[in-house]
């Protein structure tokens, strides 16, 4: 006979995976900052050890590292602006991809399906075909090719384009990053919307909700929370991809480290150590913050197992 558990007390797992005092949850899951507290001292030890062995000059890195703050701001601007615009463009593409048009096959003697409006017949298949082709092309071609196509298209169309004080290379890089991240975000959103439990959608339709209401109040809120981490990974990937726009003379982080530190100062080793420091600090910090917020704000039981509360 199983005794009922007191209300308000979290279930405690038993067996070899259980941990006393932690409800069966590993300590690095319960305290997201713990890995950083361990990794940072280890990384500093390795950094100083390699410097002591002569692989690079630590005083030089500490002296010239602040000069990369400006290029880092350019990289962050390119990444964040393109990501936000890409999200707005990817949302309708993700919705179209999540609900593909279907051919209805009626069995002999079955009732006729409800009539489909002419507008839906005309628009559904072309829109789905465009969304599918767009995602396939973006995910199937290198970003370097995409950025040069955009760059030369702008150069030929507007040789001296300057808007808001920004030059052609910046606009080309921003547009290329936006086009690229839109395709990847659309696929992430499609996966999130299709991951919502079908039983919840059927229940919403059973209580009288329309398709739009079902998507707005059931599918969309849960789908967005399910893709929080994938979208964060896409931002990080977009931030690292922005290094490629240095090949069209955008003065971002990689351009600064390659042109100024490696070539002008003749310090190639220090150049790439410094750019690695910038990327590690920004990407790891963002990843841990988003993981913490996702854990605090997620819907219990949706996507990941519920973490049991500590007794006491």
Please summarize what this structure is.
Helix content is 66%, strand content 0%. The protein has a domain at 69-100 and 120-297: MetI-like fold (Orthogonal Bundle), CATH 1.10.3720.10. With 312 residues, the protein is an all-alpha fold.
Quote the distance from N terminus to C terminus.
26 Å
Largest sheet: none
Could you estimate the helical fraction of the residues in percent? 55-70%
Low-confidence stretches: 1-25, 305-312
> How many individual β-strands?
0
- Architecture per CATH nomenclature, i.e. the level-2 architecture of the domain at 69-100 and 120-297: Orthogonal Bundle
Structural class: mainly alpha
If you consult CATH, what is the topology of the domain at 69-100 and 120-297? MetI-like fold
The shape is flat
One letter per element, helices H and strands E, the order comes to HHHHHHHHHHHH
> In the CATH hierarchy, what is the class of the domain at 69-100 and 120-297?
Mainly Alpha
Mean pLDDT: 79
Rg on CA atoms, Å = 26 Å
CATH homologous superfamily designation of the domain at 69-100 and 120-297? MetI-like
């Amino acid at each position: 006979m199983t005794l009922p558990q007191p209300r308000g007390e979290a279930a405690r797992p038993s067996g070899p995976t259980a941990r006393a005092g932690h409800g069966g949850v590993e300590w690095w899951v319960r305290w997201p900052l713990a890995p950083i507290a361990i990794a940072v001292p280890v990384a500093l030890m390795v950094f100083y050890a390699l410097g002591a062995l002569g692989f690079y000059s630590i005083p030089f890195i500490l002296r010239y590292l602040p000069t990369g703050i400006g290029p880092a701001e350019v990289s962050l601007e390119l990444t964040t602006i393109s990501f936000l615009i890409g999200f707005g463009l990817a949302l309708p593409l993700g919705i179209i991809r999540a609900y593909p048009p279907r051919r209805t096959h009626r069995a002999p003697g079955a009732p006729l399906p409800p009539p489909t409006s002419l507008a839906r017949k005309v628009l559904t298949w072309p829109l789905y075909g465009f969304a599918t082709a767009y995602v396939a092309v973006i995910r199937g071609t290198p970003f370097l090719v995409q950025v040069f196509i955009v760059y030369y298209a702008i150069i030929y169309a507007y040789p001296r384009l300057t808007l808001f004080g920004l030059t052609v290379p910046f606009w080309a890089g921003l547009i290329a990053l936006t086009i690229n991240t839109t395709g990847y975000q659309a696929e992430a959103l499609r996966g999130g919307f299709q991951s919502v439990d079908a039983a919840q959608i059927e229940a919403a339709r059973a209580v009288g909700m329309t398709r739009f209401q079902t998507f707005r109040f059931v599918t969309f809120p849960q789908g967005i929370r399910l893709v929080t981490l994938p979208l964060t990974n896409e931002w990080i990937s977009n931030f690292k991809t922005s290094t490629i726009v240095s090949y069209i003379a955008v003065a971002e982080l990689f351009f600064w480290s390659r042109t100024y530190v490696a070539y002008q100062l003749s310090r190639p080793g220090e150049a790439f150590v410094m750019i690695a420091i910038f990327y590690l600090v920004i990407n790891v910090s963002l990843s841990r913050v988003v993981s913490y917020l996702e854990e605090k704000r997620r819907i219990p039981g949706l996507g990941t197992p519920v973490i049991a509360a500590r007794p006491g």
